[in-house]
Amino acid sequence: MAPNDSAQITGETGETGDLPAGRRRAARYVVPVAVAGIAAATIGLVPALAASGDPDLPKISAQELIEKIAASDTEQLSGTVKITTDLGIPSLGGLGGSAAGAFAPKGGAEGGGSADGGEKGGSAAEPTGRLMELASGEHTLRVAADGPDKQRVSILDSAAEYSLIHNAGEVWAYDSASNEAYHAKAPADAKGSGEDGKDGKDGKDQAVPKDLPATPQDFAQEALKAAGDTTSVTVDGTARIAGRDAYQLLIKPKQDGSTVGSIKVAVDSKTGTPLKFTLLPSGGGKAAIDIGFTKIDFSKPSASTFDFSPPKGAKVTEADESKAAGKEADAHKSAEDAKGLGAEPNVIGEGWTAVVQLDTGGQTPAGGPSGDMPAQAQQFMDALGDKVEGKFGSGTVFQTRLVNALMTDDGKVYVGAVTKDALVKAADEAK
């Protein structure tokens, strides 16, 4: 087993003080459960699996292991991934496309209209809502990649399968349960979007996720972007993952107040490909996110893996049609957003304890003290959170195991992967 070796990581490995993409996206959302769900969905594709055995590998430093991940040129692989997410929120399984309407940005990932699985022309196969299901519970994925132009991710369950396929600029999604398919061009700034990057109308009108994951290291690198003066990074021994020898990279915040206890990434000793990603909350207990390969093969997948034609009788929704159907609703929602969110979000603090502040324009998410929300509904909302007071005034903290949010009575919202006390402190400092 390789001995522990620590390293101070500077901005060379990423932006000092950043958290993974989920926190940056949290600025768009007000409802705490939505924030937690998006954070989980963003991180949730990182492969992880419990280790079995500790192989004896040559000594390596933390900096060398990070460089090994960055230098990894793995573009061809296939395998099975198991995802377990426990953020302490209700399961999103079965919500399908309807999750997008509640949790996703306006009009899907890129303004593509209704994503509610049928309402206003939406499709149950639209990716945004379906990928939200990964924010909670246990899931099994079958994945394959052949360079930047070809990737496939299938979510398997006992009775159905949902597949998202990217093949040379064309994106197909298919939901076998509803027999619905969704078709779009890959965004121009996504990997492998097509020749000269001109497919997808410059990526402005397509309701498909950008940067469809091609390899696991894409996600591990997001965690490494948090590495800076506020972070400790060490090599924490070795492991045997999906039949492969791996080093274990341990990432821990140095700051008090973060809900992230540690992140462990198992890295293939030969290819530098991340095989495992486990996030433990600072509050203890089992992993909040534990995701990884149960099987992996680095050989070139068959070309037919990325072929797709809608089955006979399937309802096919084109991205442009979906956007046109939801155009009116999106325009209304944009106007409401402009009224409700007020000024641009402000970031308080740095590193792992950074908190995003939003202004809802004087209207609390629950309707506020003006009495717009029925008393019983207000009582129910209050029961979900903890009442707090400080220099900022008073408000309610809604907590998950990872992402928490403070909603003040005067319409401010503070969101971060920080503790309740850290949220109150941030609100006091902003006052």
Number of domains: 2
Integer average pLDDT: 73
Distance between the termini: 51 Å
Relative strand content: 25-35%
CATH topology of the largest domain: outer membrane lipoprotein receptor (LolB), chain A
DSSP strand count: 19
How would you sum up the global shape? Answer: globular
Query: Level of helix content?
Result: 10-25%
Q: What low-confidence regions span 5 or more consecutive residues with pLDDT below 50?
A: 1-52, 94-121, 192-208, 211-216, 324-342, 365-371
Helix count equals 11
Largest sheet: 13 strands, mixed
- Give the strand line-up of the largest sheet: 1-8-9-10-11-12-2-3-4-5-6-7-13
Topology summary:
Layout: E1 5-8, H1 21-25, H2 32-43, H3 62-71, E2 76-85, H4 98-103, H5 107-111, H6 127-132, E3 137-146, E4 150-156, E5 161-167, E6 170-175, E7 180-185, H7 217-224, E8 231-241, E9 244-253, E10 260-268, E11 274-281, E12 289-297, E13 315-318, H8 319-325, H9 327-341, E14 346-348, E15 355-359, H10 375-384, E16 386-390, E17 393-398, E18 404-408, E19 412-416, H11 420-430
Parallel strand pairs: 7-13
Antiparallel strand pairs: 1-8, 2-3, 2-12, 3-4, 4-5, 5-6, 6-7, 8-9, 9-10, 10-11, 11-12, 14-15, 15-19, 16-17, 17-18, 18-19
What does this entry look like structurally?
With 431 residues, the protein is α+β, with helices and mostly antiparallel strands. It contains 11 helices and 19 strands. The chain has helices spanning 21-25, 32-43, 62-71, 98-103, 107-111, 127-132, 217-224, 319-325, 327-341, 375-384, 420-430; strands spanning 5-8, 76-85, 137-146, 150-156, 161-167, 170-175, 180-185, 231-241, 244-253, 260-268, 274-281, 289-297, 315-318, 346-348, 355-359, 386-390, 393-398, 404-408, 412-416. The strands form 2 sheets. The chain has a 13-stranded mixed beta sheet with strand order 1-8-9-10-11-12-2-3-4-5-6-7-13. A 6-stranded antiparallel beta sheet has the order 14-15-19-18-17-16, with helices on both faces. A hairpin with a 4-residue loop joins β4 and β5 (161-167). The longest helix has 15 residues, at 327-341. It is globular, with a radius of gyration of 22 Å. The model is unreliable at 1-52, 94-121, 192-208, 211-216, 324-342 and 365-371 (pLDDT under 50).
